[in-house]
Hints:
- Helices cover 37% and strands 21% of the residues.
- The chain is an alpha+beta fold.
- The protein has six domains: 2-65, Helix hairpin bin (Helix Hairpins), CATH 1.10.287.610; 79-318, 2-Layer Sandwich (D-amino Acid Aminotransferase, Chain A, domain 1); 324-430, CATH 2.40.50.140; 436-506, DNA polymerase, domain 1 (Orthogonal Bundle); 511-587, 5' to 3' exonuclease, C-terminal subdomain (DNA polymerase, domain 1, Orthogonal Bundle), CATH 1.10.150; 600-667, 3-Layer(aba) Sandwich (Rossmann fold), CATH 3.40.50.
- The radius of gyration is 28 Å and the shape is globular.
- The two termini are 19 Å apart.
Amino acid sequence: MARAAAHDARAEVERLRREIRRHDHLYYVLDAPEITDAEYDALFRRLEALEKAHPELVTPDSPTQRVGGAPLSKFEPVRHRHPMLSLANATSREEVAEFDARVRKLAERAHVEYACEPKMDGVAVELVYEHGTLATGATRGDGTVGEDVTVNIRTIRSVPLTLHPGRPVPARLEVRGEVYLPLEPFRRLNREREEAGEPVFANPRNAAAGSLKQLDPRVTAARPLDLVCHGVGAFEGLGVRTQAELLAAFAEWGLRPVPRHTVARTLDELAAAFAALDAERDRLPFEIDGLVIKVNDLVLQRALGQVSRAPRWAVAWKFKPRQAVTRVRDIVPSVGRTGVLTPIAELEPVRVGGVTVRNASLHNMDEVTRKDVRIGDTILLERAGDVIPYVVKVLVDERTGRERRFRMPARCPVCGAEVVRPEGEVAYRCINLACPAKLKQAIRFFGARGAMDVEGLGEKLVEQLVDRGLVRDFADLYRLDEQALVALERMGTKSAQNLLVQLERSKTVPLSRFLVGLGIRQVGEATAKALAEHFGTLERVMEASEEALQEVRDVGPEVARSIHQFFAERQNRRVIERLLAAGVRPAPVRRTHGPLSGRKLVLTGGLASMTRPEAQRRIEALGGRVVSSVSKEVDFVVVGADPGSKLTKAEKLGLRLLDEDAFRKLVGA
Length: 669
């Protein structure tokens, strides 16, 4: 009976993996989803449950294993089997004509066909697939040796961990591509970093590079990177003859080819392709900086070879930078959701790339000081990512002597409360939790989909609720009535009733989403879920010490301090008490029951038979909990190879020690 059940579980796991991979490809590569997010989540949760119940079925290429493992200490070097070349640039039709003439002369042909592709502004990488399975992901580096970023590449959802057998899969495939961050996630990431008082990224390429080079893959996974493929290290044995055929092959293998590729046969056609792409770039959801022109014939590419580090068979026709000169009329501080004051340059209106720009964020005082931006300065402005206005530099020679330095105010410009700069941070913050500027954004965040999910609680409504004094904190939302709502602008009876229904429904919410809604600094969805799973109830989270908080997966000293300070603040606890009194009930997390229910285990040293994340999954599947510090409350200390100081402390406390064999027997491995 047990064997039959295991066989059924294996069959269902394999079916679920196939189905999830297909839906990942439809959603992330083809942009043609067939099911809703809720239906996809149900499939994923079922697979997670089966793998938790049957840890022996977990494989590295399972969709559940995209993020895993402890943070790296460094990236290891990877030598490319074939060099990753850099493209030469052209900035005019005349330079492209010279390139075309050189190619035709070397090829001894009157006409050459070219593949035209947008030049994605991202990070060049190589993915190596061995027998159809992703083996290595590496950066370009110096073209010969890059860095191993496989764990981070695996987090990119458009990257298949296993190639689709749409066409014969080669024994080894060296895919060349570009990792990038789409524009909307780029804007969202910068907003979040600015509100948190962190340095913002100058452009999407810097954001992609910074995300890909994170030593902790969980940070990379939280940023929606994407990847497109445009080449290979070697094309022999792939069954393709041209660049266009190669891009079609990528699609059949489940890889996303570079979009909007065309073929051109004359200089006029190349110029037309460049002009069409330049005209379209403002409407694209990603950043490009030119048109890549490649000889379409792959055999001819190989024959033409390279000069230094650049191929003779390709060139990048670059767009002109989108910049303008204007004057800083004033610099004013803007207060964000977390209380961070951001200096904003108010500009003389100027057209940049077809858009009129009136304001540009200066991000923080360190940035203002570094660039020495003053009120009255003449500046060079650029639309970073062709979207975000960005002050490139001050034109110092244009100064008249009447320019004035900006200083951050000692009092909040919105509420008049004290402004402080916490030690070690670049951000200045308003410390008043009831500051109206913070309150409006905090309430919108509280009602957002990833938090309390109150549909209809939009920006205009929140502004009216706060401005009219109807809502002074989160709890006031649950004391609203139909009469008060109908009196607001553009709020009819039906809309008011719908909002009240949504608010009533939101009173019963998972603990993790309630924690997200509170807006605790550095607590996003992943950390909130880990807190909920670890402590089980809101009360236990609120009473946890910094040391206890650090036992939670992914919570380090800084995050633990932020959480502890939040719940230690009397005003915050008062708001939570009012929420509970209004009927909000964060649902406690039900513990998994099993042989290790209620038991705490510490892992020290390496295990030969499994990774640490796998050991943790097995413990949690049996109801146990892995903690990071040794104390009298710990039930078992699992001792692997080269144990650290935790073993010494455990021996002093007389705790029960398990070697690897005893641990495997305990968890049924």
